[in-house]
Specification:
74% helix, single chain, 0% strand, mainly alpha, globular, 311 residues
């Protein structure tokens, strides 16, 4: 079994970005495998799904310890996502491995990447939820299950969606959830989803084990390192650049001509700059408030503190 050192290094870069920013790995790993290393989309998607099963538990453990996982939402999502993720891998199996099938899969993957990048951009312009007041959570059963069905199927078919589309759709129907609750809940539900998709890929025979092992060797330690660094500082300014790369990758997959891709790159650059400026403002800590006392007011403030009580 051959371990590709360059693939290990590339997977380490993606793993580090995932750990540092909390973004889903499917939107980064699969495009890297296909566009840079020339791996067939079906093999790239299947291997990425299995590798994700080793990457996600570390982030879930952190959020579970911090009690940011909404278990009620996770259960409802899994009702929809687990069977639909398995179905997604079966549909990919039915598509076959011919050149036409791989091209169709590229178009589907590109569409998923465009939706995922759009979801990242939309989320960056939504109001922050760090200061939301605590309110009782009312579970919306059927919309939540429907989100699981759509997200699970897309993950099983393209490996994209667990860390982007599902999270933004949750944000739409649970607007009172804080950011860390959204991320923790999305990560927790992605483990059973990924397990179902992994079972499907193993059953239907899309996996290249040498490729998968190379990804795991590079990405898992890097995810841990990125998570540890992220806990010491905020790296939200990295997300806009990742969203831009994912969007352009998706446009290339769907076959956008080079001139149009150049125009899209310019427009994307403008959006990335705006997102970066917003992220910088959000992440900037508040300036300390200084208490200034006028010289004439100082005795009036100090006197009551040092006065000796009368007996």
């Amino acid at each position: 079994m051959h371990i590709d050192i360059y693939l290990v290094l590339g997977s380490a870069v993606v793993g580090f970005l995932v750990g540092m920013t909390g973004l889903g790995g499917g939107a980064l790993m699969t495009p890297m495998l296909v566009l840079i290393f020339g791996i067939a989309p079906s093999a790239a998607i299947s291997s990425d799904l299995i590798a994700a099963l080793f990457m996600k538990p570390f982030g879930v453990a952190i959020h579970w310890k911090r009690k940011t996982v909404q278990t009620g939402i996770v259960k409802l999502l899994c009702i929809g996502s687990v069977p639909s993720a398995f179905l997604g891998t079966y549909v990919m199996h039915l598509m076959g491995d011919s050149a036409t099938a791989e091209r169709n899969l590229e178009i589907l993957l590109g569409t998923a990447l465009i939706f995922g990048a759009t979801a990242m951009i939309v989320r960056s312009f939504l109001p922050g939820r760090h200061q939301q007041t605590a309110k009782p959570l009312t579970l919306r059963k059927y919309p939540t299950i429907a989100i699981g069905v759509v997200g699970g199927f897309m993950v099983g078919l393209t490996s994209v969606g667990a860390g982007s589309m599902i999270l933004v759709m949750l944000l739409m129907i649970y607007p009172n959830l804080k950011n860390h609750q959204l991320v923790g809940t999305d990560l927790a539900q992605s483990i059973p989803l990924t397990m179902a998709a992994t079972a499907g890929t193993l059953l239907f025979g899309h996996v290249e084990f040498a490729l998968t092992i190379s990804i795991i060797i590079g990405s898992v330690p890097a995810v841990i390192a990125g998570s540890l660094i992220s806990s010491k500082g905020t790296f939200q300014v990295v997300r806009p650049f990742i969203a831009g790369v994912v969007l352009l990758s998706g446009l290339k997959y769907v076959g956008l001509p080079i001139p149009a891709l150049g125009v899209a790159a310019l427009l994307t650059a403008v959006v990335v700059v705006v997102m970066t400026v917003r992220a910088t403002r959000v992440d900037r800590p508040p300036e300390p408030v200084e208490l200034v006392l006028l010289h004439d007011e100082l005795p009036q403030v100090v006197a009551p503190l040092v006065a000796v009580p009368e007996h």
